[in-house]
């Protein structure tokens, strides 16, 4: 399987990076092809200054991201839950990378659109300091509603699996190792 791994935590020293490293190593060891980008090291303006009225020239890192999205069969995104949503840099990445004519095409005469990224699946690996029950109760899983439904499935990517690692800040080393083992198993046999 061809996997595009996007590590979307802006801090390379985060537990998210350990998740991404573990996923990458396990997928490659299982014989999958995997190409990775890290938002922390990418160089691009995350602000969509004019909406889609005028498409800004894409920086090389975003051109590469579009190529990897087109190449992959599975898109894996690792990110933290911040303020009930995704980091601003990830939102800016979506705004700048998933463009009309590349990820979707709106119809001229009706409110529908063509999904140009069909044939791919996705997996969201999400970290949170809050308990899962709080994330559901207080935020209604707003990050998943946005990324899974309003971004990936809007463009045709489905199914999209979701794995949330909760209460990371207070987790023990033993718990983190168990989570990384879970990631190893998922990466070796992506569905």
Describe the structure.
It is a single chain. The chain is of the alpha/beta class and 191 residues long. It has one domain: 3-Layer(aba) Sandwich (Rossmann fold). The chain is built from 6 helices and 7 strands, in the order βαβαβαβββααβα. The strands form 2 sheets. A 5-stranded parallel sheet has the order 2-1-3-6-7, sandwiched between helices. Strand 1, helix 1 and strand 2 (33-38) form a beta-alpha-beta unit.
Brief account:
The chain is α/β, with parallel strands linked by helices and 191 residues long.
Could you give the topology of this structure?
Elements: E1 2-7, H1 15-29, E2 33-38, H2 60-71, E3 74-80, H3 88-97, E4 104-106, E5 113-115, E6 121-127, H4 132-139, H5 142-152, E7 160-165, H6 173-188
Parallel strand pairs: 1-2, 1-3, 3-6, 6-7
Antiparallel strand pairs: 4-5
Helix pairs in contact: 1-6
Q: What is the CATH class name?
A: Alpha Beta
The 3D shape can be described as: globular
Total count of strands: 7
Strand order of the largest sheet: 2-1-3-6-7
Name the average pLDDT: 95
What are the low-pLDDT stretches, counting only 5+ consecutive residues below 50? none
Number of helices: 6
Order of helices and strands: EHEHEHEEEHHEH
Percent strand: 15-25%
User: Architecture in CATH?
Assistant: 3-Layer(aba) Sandwich
| SSE-based structural type | alpha/beta
Gap from first CA to last CA? 10 Å
Helicity level: 25-40%
What do we call the CATH homologous superfamily?
A: Flavodoxin domain
Rounded radius of gyration (Å): 16 Å
Largest sheet: 5 strands, parallel
CATH fold call: Rossmann fold
Give the domain tally.
1
